């Protein structure tokens, strides 16, 4: 089984899309899974949820469970399926429940500030 570690991400984190700040948090989590780059998960209450629109996409991870996806909708663009969340994660990764992670790209940046 892939080893998954979750810890409090040090410092303050921000996620931006299209120049707009979508979220900022001192309570982000960092999830490390095997050899994959770490992923920052933002608490849902620290993200501008009004800018997210649930999409039809779902995926299944054998270690974390079923992920629900959201598109980022702002004035200038729509970034489809750019956010995911495990609404009911497996017990081993229960800490990420209520958190959102972002697919980083040219238009979506996750940074420590």
TrEMBL record:
Domain of life: Bacteria
Pfam family, one: NTP_transf_9
Limits of the DUF427 domain: 14-104
InterPro entries in UniProt: DUF427, DUF427_sf
Name used for this protein in its record: DUF427 domain-containing protein
Lineage of source species: Bacteria, Pseudomonadati, Pseudomonadota, Alphaproteobacteria, Rhodobacterales
């Amino acid at each position: 089984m892939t080893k998954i570690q979750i810890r409090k991400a040090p410092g303050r984190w921000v996620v931006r899309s299209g120049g707009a700040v979508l979220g900022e948090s001192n309570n982000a989590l960092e999830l490390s899974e095997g050899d994959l780059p770490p992923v920052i998960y933002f608490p849902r209450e620290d993200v501008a949820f009004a800018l997210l629109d649930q999409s039809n996409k779902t995926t299944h991870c054998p270690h974390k469970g079923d992920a629900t996806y959201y598109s980022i909708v702002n004035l200038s663009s729509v970034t489809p399926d750019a956010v995911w969340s495990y609404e009911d994660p497996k017990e081993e990764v229960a800490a990420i429940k209520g958190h959102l992670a972002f697919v980083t790209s040219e238009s979506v940046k996750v940074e420590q500030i």
